[in-house]
Amino acid sequence: MIYDPANDVDETEDTQRVDRILKASFGVVGLALGVAVLLVGGLTMVGIANSIGVQASAGSGGESPDQLPGATVALDQGCVGCHSIDGSTLAGPTWQGIFETDRTMDTGDVVFADEDYLIRSIVDPAFEIVEGFDAVMPTDYEEKLTEEEINDLVDYIESLA
Fold first, then answer.
1. What backbone phi and psi angles, to 5 degrees, belong to 111?
2. Is residue 74 domain-shared with residue 38, that is, in the same domain?
3. What pLDDT, in 10s, does the model give residues 91-146?
């Protein structure tokens, strides 16, 4: 189209069409960007949940470890950022197979990992440090968690034996 000052109007048919195309394109791009953000965020949460075994219940009737309330507490409190359930080493000891085993502390003492040990490790994590790890666990879980949540975590850890 050639510009003709005699026909000067605010918007010509061509500019209106281009405007509509641009708006539609940005709308699609915006929608695609929004979907991508939701997808990545969702996949991140699924990845974290899968790292501790939290999955949707299939209604099988029996509870697997991932269906125990402690699995949800572990995810909600961020425990899985430092403690794995698959034996891999993170900032804290793995929870896989820890229950009812001997644990060597950084002092050289050997401690049996029973329910009392697990509770003590949650509410007073600096009391005994597992050999090879640093005392980096937050020390406020006794205030942050209810007694029920602590027991749920212990039950969950026990189930990973």
1. -120, 140
2. no
3. 999 999 999 999 999 999 999 999 999 999 999 999 999 999 999 999 999 999 99
- Burial bucket for residue 123 (CB in 10 Å: 0-12, 13-18, 19+): middle
Q: 31 and 92: one domain? A: no
In which domain, by residue range, is 128 found? 65-159
Six-digit token string for 75: 């995810």
Cα 114 to Cα 8, 94, 122, distances in angstroms: 86, 15, 13
DSSP character at residue 105:
B
Q: What is the CA radius of gyration of the chain?
A: 27
Residue with tokens 């049996």: 112
Q: Are 109 and 127 in contact (CB under 8 A)?
A: no
Task: Quote the number of domains for the chain.
Answer: 2
H or E stretch at 30? helix 13-51
Smallest Cα–Cα separation from 122: which of 79, 71, 65? 79
Q: How far is CA 138 from CA 13, 124, 125, 143, in A?
A: 65, 9, 8, 11
- Residues 84, 112 share a domain: yes
> Residue 61 corresponds to which amino acid?
G
Handedness of CA 158, 140, 67, 54 (dihedral sign): negative
* pLDDT at residue 62, as a whole number: 56
